Amino acid sequence: MANNLFRGNFSSTMTHRVLLLSTLLILISPQDAHSQWSTPVFIDSARYIYAFGGQLALDDSDDMYVTFSAFQGNAIVISRSTDKGTSWNQNVFTGTELSRVPRDIATDHIGNVWLLWVSIDNEMAPTYLNLSKSIDNGRTFSTVFRSLSYSDGFLHQRLAIDQQDNVYMLWDDVTFKVTRFRFGNVGDRLDSDLPRDTFSISAHPALVVTKDYAIHCTWTGVTYDSSGYHYFLFYSRSIDTGATFPGRTLVDTSADDAALVVDSSGNVLTSYIRSASAIDRGVRFKQSSNGGQSFGSPLIITPTDTAFAVSMCVDSENGTNILWSSQGHPIQYARSSDGGKSFIQLSGPKVGFTDMKAGRNGLVYVPGLTDSGMAFTYNDVLLAVSTLAEKPNRVSLFQNYPNPFNPSTTISFRIDQSEDVRLGIFDLLGREIVSLISQPLPSGNYQIKWDASGFASGVYFARLRLNSTAIIKKIILAR
Questions:
Q1: Is the pLDDT of residue 243 over 70?
Q2: Alpha carbon distance 74, 61 (integer Å)
Q3: Which of 16, 47, 62, 197 gives the lowest tally of CB atoms within 10 Å of its CB?
Q4: Cβ-contact 32, 9 below 8 angstroms
Q5: Nearest-CA neighbor of 439 among 451, 423, 425, 426?
């Protein structure tokens, strides 16, 4: 069976696949020993092992709130930590409903905690969306807004709060809309529909409100025809505090899930999963430097075809952090410190992440599920970055020469210590078509010639792999 280029742990850059699938891949450098994820601390015991939710909110002091609910039961748990996740105090938000499921949680700048949640009164009753408020650090809540479900059962909602404590909900209410409650007053309500056109379903929303009061949204528009379901990832922005969303930008023609952040320079960043029906599957990253009017070429975070969830945040060092889940694999983590031009893949947390937020102290916080219940971990980004900066490169793969070539080219590389080395040539489908080296080598500089006689013109990839490190170079055969 042919080896697959896209099974290794690496990051890459890729121009959009059009006709010739012109592709550019860059350095992959896993550094598992330097991820600095803390040992998970349990937020709750195994009685909530089948929990839903797991959303995380940080207040202005970096005190944390995590909310989740039991698989069977009508209670929503609100856990608070005031010591950066070392210990957690719990309160249970109960009621008479058959089911209660949290959808999002946020804090304002005067100490209130806001909870967006879904309830079902009984097996024959419809679903309700609820917005509740706590003025005592999550110990008790009062429900200030409730709406009957009109569309697909409130599967998709998000909550955000701006610098003036305006509260925003992105939700499905006949149409996909953003609702603003001015200064948190539900009696002062403003609704604005997101651009929808002919899409029958809108799903997987993300909502960010920035310090300039701009509202940023991404969502998936879903259509269905004789060939099946089609998923389109869209972005829209409001610059008048939610009064209007004048248009939308098509980010990608296939996306099942997406995360959205805006960095300190105003760049709009999104990471998403290409859907199972797409040719180029896996986790992608795109960014816009013009307020979402257009997005650049996608960067491949991982080309795995089993990814099913993604989360993203920008840390206090302006680094971009991405987590994703893949069937049969541990949680994966990658970080960019150069504005999203490249990502370093690191070992992931030991929890099945449900959310990710960045603190103001160089830490990245992650709640998630384990076999023993809801847990919490964090990553010391500052320490990881410092350690990585001190670690010298032990391998280099140089661009082949000539390139383009016909019919042969020379590939050069250097290793700084004795290693098991594999150097191969791969096609656009990720299949190894030629194995050039597969043996232990001492440190030194090496050159090897590839004669491509008998191979078709086009784009190929040279991959140099040493244990946990792999480097890819694009090479072009032009006859």
A1: yes
A2: 31
A3: 197
A4: no
A5: 423
CATH 2.60.40.1930 intervals, the chain: 5-10+20-25+393-477
What's domain 32-390's architecture? 6 Propeller (2.120)
Q: Which residues contact 417 (CB under 8 A, 6 or more apart)?
A: 394, 443
pLDDT at 382 > cutoff 80 = no
Pairwise CA distance, residues 48 & 69, whole Å: 7
Structure tokens at 187: 């009696």
Q: 163-167, 389-393, 430-434, 470-474: which range is least confident on average?
A: 389-393
Domain limits, CATH 2.120.10.10, in the chain: 32-390
Token pair of 55 as six digits: 């959303």
What global pTM score does this model have?
A: 0.74
Q: Which amino acid is at 69?
A: S
Cα angle, residue 31 at apex, residues 334 and 337 outer, rounded to 5°: 45
The residues pairing with 171 across neighbouring beta strands, listed in sequence order, are: 177
Position 101 scores a pLDDT of: 87
3 touches 431 (CB < 8 A): yes
Q: What is the 3-state secondary structure (H, E, C) of the chain?
A: CCCEHHHCCCCEECCCCCCCCCCCCCCECCCHHHCCECCCEECCCHHHCCCEEEEEEECCCCCEEEEEECCCCCCEEEEEECCCCCCCEEEEECCCCCEEEEEEEEECCCCCEEEEEEEECCCCCCEEEEEEEECCCCCCCEEEEEEECCCCCCCCCEEEECCCCCEEEEEEECEEEEEEEHHHCCCCEEEEECCCCCCCEEEEEEEEECCCCCEEEEEEEEEEECCEEEEEEEEEEECCCCCCCCCCEEEECCCCEEEEEECCCCCEEEEEEECCCCCCCEEEEEEECCCCCCCCCCEEEECCCCEEEEEEEECCCCCEEEEEEECCCCCEEEEECCCCCCCEEEECCCCEECCCEECCCCEEEEEEEECCEEEEEEEEHHHHHHHHHHCCCCEEECCCECCCECCEEEEEEEECCCEEEEEEEECCCCEEEEEEEEEEECCEEEEEEEECCCCCCEEEEEEEEECCEEEEEEEEECC
Region 370-375 average pLDDT: 79
